[in-house]
Every structure is written in C-alpha cells, then in structure tokens.
What does this fold into?
Amino acid sequence: MVRKICVLGAGIIGLYSAVRILEDLQNVDVTVIAEKFSPNNTSDVAAGFWIPHKMGSTNISLIKRWGDETFQYLLNLHESPMASELGIQLVSGYHLNSRQVNPFWKDTVFNLRDLTPEENKLFPNYTNNRFFTSIIVCGTLYLKWLMGRFISLGGKVKSKKLESLSEVMADFDIVVNCCGLGNYHLINDRQMTPIRGQVIRVNAPWIKHFYVASGVDKPVYIFPSKNYVVLGGTSQEGNWDTTPNEEDQRHILDSCAQVVPSLKNVEILETRVGLRPFRKETRLDQETVTFNGRTIQVINNYGHGGCGLTTFVGCAKDVVAMIRGAGVAPRYGAKL
It folds into this structure.
C-alpha cells in the first residue's frame, strides 16, 4: 500500500526531510506544500556556516547528534565533484569571545585551538579566542539542487498558504510539519518567535577566513561564501520586520570593519533580512490525530532557531525513523 505523505515547508528542514523520506522508504508518495520557496526562504538568507547556536534549551546531546550527522553529510558532499555547484566549502577562521567558553561541538570541527599571544594581539577587544575549520554551504545553491533531487525522485510540489492543518488531513496519511515560524499562526504555537537577522553581502574576494565574535551586545560575523562575503549581523528577538534597516546596516559595516579593517568602504552587493524560527526547545516529535474517522500521523520538525543548516540531516533521519515506526518499510539498502 502506498502511503501519501505531505511535508509542509520548503526550507532546508522541510525539503531535506522530503528528499530523505523518498530516498529511505518505499511505497511512499510525497508532496511538499509551502507558501514560500527558494530563493525567498530564511534558508536563503542564512550565512550557512556550521556552528550550533540559537536553539534555546534544546537538549545538548540531541543538538550534538543532529549536528554531527549534518557535518559529516556536508563533509561528504564537500569531497564530491558537486561541491562547487552546491556552494559547499571548508573554511578556517577565528572564533572571538569576551568570556570563557567550552563549546560542546569542539570535537566536531577540525583542529580547534587557542590563539597564540601574537595572534591575540590582532583582536584586542576579545580575550578568549580560538581558531578552527568548519563547513559553509550556500543555502540558495543547495536548495536549488535539493529541489531537483526531490523532483527526480518523484516528489510533487504545491504552492499554497495554509490556514490550518485540517486543510491537508483529508488527502494524506502522514503530515510532516516543517513550517518553522509559520507555526505561530498555523497551529497557534506561541512558543515560536522570530529572531531577526540582517546580513549584508559584499564583494570582498580577499577575505579567506571567517570571523565570529560573540559575548558582546550584538553579534559580529564575517563569512566568505562562493560568490560573496556575508557580513552580519543582528539578533533581534520578537522582531517580525523583514525590511532592511539603515541603522542595522551601519552597525554591521562598522562592527565588521573593526574586526577586519580592510572591509571599510567595501562594495555592497545586497542586504537581506531573515527571521530565525526560534523556539525555547526545538520540536521534533509525533502525534496521532483523528480526522473524519481516519487516524493521521503528524510529525513535527520545527523551531531550529539559527541551526537549520547545522542540524537538518540529523533531524530528517529522526523523521524517517518515526515514519518507519508507523509501519512504512525502508528501501532496500537504506540506512538510518
């Protein structure tokens, strides 16, 4: 029997979940329904740097497992001929802090070390500084490829704004809710709140390292990507405004130039704003709903804050495991 599955949301969390379902399970018919698609998602605005942050009180062991699985997946893509097409690259750089930290992800990234005294002189405003190598992925390029992969596997796509989950209950056996911030209205989840992030994409090909400064009032980050350098940023909880703000723009440019002076008067390519889908605790669970006498499995996979591109693979594997638990058979050779 073919099970009809609906995935709500076409950001990195939803689209990869949909692909993984088709790759790992047999006798499934999968449709992605979303109001917005790339390049108009938060995943397109994200810097795409692998580092866990903004996940509230979500269990650290879960974040680490989800993140480690995602890191390994991205690393495998980096080692493939597709890396350039997907905008995936290894990037080394500086993690600057004004307070002592011991990140739980230190053994996932490569070669994390303290800066030498001479290196620390480069960053006099920060006292606890490290250097390491991580992965960066261009969300727009990767989502484009992922959509192609989904279609090639037989996936279907529908553009629609939903007002209620009941709108899809009659047509599907399983609903995977990856609507992110949209769940504030869709299922009235008042734990969802936006964390507004404004970024500037600039033409600065001489920037080869990343710079992340934390432990300060406003975050500062500089990430070299395939076709531009991302400067950020803001972290404004509860702010729903997606219009670029001139005051934020000045702050970003000034703050980044303080860390890397060569960025002063840099050529601006574009400014974008994304709303991180923050929840006190990421929701990845399942429930059963009765609709017109039918039992529907609803899987919730949302509220990843600033970690969508850091945890999407591990979360999708958990989604697949839940669907398998409902009696859907794996494809031959598929591995969780």
